Amino acid sequence: MTITVGYSTVEIRAYLTEYDMLPFGQKGKWVDTQPFSKKQLYQWMRALVAGDLDRGLVPRENGTMSFPSRRKKMTEALTSDRERVLMDELAAKEKALAAKEAELARRNEDIHRLEETASTLGKAIGLLHARNVSEPDATEDQQDPSSS
Predict the structure, then answer these.
(1) Which of 20, 36, 46, 116 is the S-S candidate for 59 at Cβ 3.0 to 4.6 Å?
(2) Where exactly are the structural domains of the chain?
(3) CA distance 16 to 146
(4) Half-sphere exposure of 106 (CA within 13 A, CB side)
(5) Please, what is the end-to-end C-alpha distance for the chain in angstroms?
(6) What is the mean pLDDT of each run of 10 residues along the chain (148 residues)?
């Protein structure tokens, strides 16, 4: 007999974590709105504390739940694991963002350098045109193609 009929261990852990995070006085109302019974929830809690949840086994002891602090620590560990995964994802996204920002800065530098080059070339072309206009003998050597 397995404990997780119809539910994955991830779903059960999520339910147990959500249950443990509820404030006093709200847990009973929350259980009443869920698709499982209070008995099933307590059975999952016992399996989690006994370490049988991952193996899908029903705990052998049917005594009362005498490990509230242990259960809280397990819930905190599950929450911290989730936070660690989220922090790792955030770090990876920040690294990718930093790489994109570095690429953008490099491209902006390239654009600035190319604009300066274009400006310098424009000035050089302007100087060449000014020089050609100021030399009258250079104009005489050049023939207009439309006059021939």
Answers:
(1) 46
(2) 1-66
(3) 92
(4) 6
(5) 106
(6) 71 86 87 88 80 66 57 70 80 93 96 96 90 63 58
